[in-house]
Amino acid sequence: MISGLYAITPEHSDTARLLEQVRAVLTGGASVVQYRNKSNEVALLHEQASELLALCHEFHVPLIINDSLRLADLTGADGLHLGREDGSLRQARIVLGGEKIIGVSCYNSLELALEAEANGADYVAFGSFFPSSTKPGAVAAHLGLLQEAKVRLNIPIVAIGGITLDNAPALIEAGADAVAVISGLFEAPDIQLAAQLYSQLFCRPVPAGKWLH
Does 135 qualify as catalytic in the annotation? Predict the structure, then answer.
């Protein structure tokens, strides 16, 4: 079950620094970590993914690999996240098997999400909900999409894009099961505290009286 704080790693060539930061995020309560690195340095990618997998398992948290089916397969990671250009869900499921987590980016399209669910995705991600420094040209999504998706989908929904402690509550109340955060975590003065504050957003009542977590 994908829920809570979904941490996405920044790109670091310094593996020790990356591990230190991710440990802080995990200590703060992140429930999922996605390794995202667009480098073509195969050795670095394999080293970092393998080290992160071991670290995440210390905390009993799954490690999801962004984009690369090959890297997810080679390292034995817990799952894979697929974007529009990252290959087919069907192929990923054949390679990784039924026990691995596979998520799909659906941008601002409920139709893509419904298709992904029908094809066996374990979760979908929508965004960008707010301007993002990581993807400044990303398509825009709106809160109404989360509300409709929550009614029509039976798999977890992740919100992404420019998420901060100030705007995350609105996404959660609209239906997001998890919020995916990069800058709001890894650029925070105190990474562990930031992770704690994001995680606590899922442990409070919403105005309607329903518990988020």
Answer: yes
Our answer to whether residue 17 is catalytic in this structure is no
pTM of the model: 0.93
Note the pLDDT of residue 135: 72
Per annotation, catalytic residue among 3, 105, 128, 199: 105
Domains of the chain listed by start with CATH number: 4-203 (3.20.20.70)
- Active-site entry in 3, 36, 68, 100: 36
| Residue 29 near residue 7, CB atoms below 8 Å | no
Distance CA 8, CA 20 (A): 14
Residues of the chain with pLDDT under 50: 206-213
Catalytic residue among 23, 93, 135, 183: 135
pLDDT at 207 (0 to 100): 45
Cβ-Cβ contacts under 8 Å for 181 (sequence gap 6 or more): 5, 6, 7, 8, 163, 168, 198
3 is an active site residue: no
Residue pair 49/75 in contact by the 8 Å Cβ criterion: yes
Q: Phi and psi dihedrals of 155, rounded to 5?
A: -120, 160
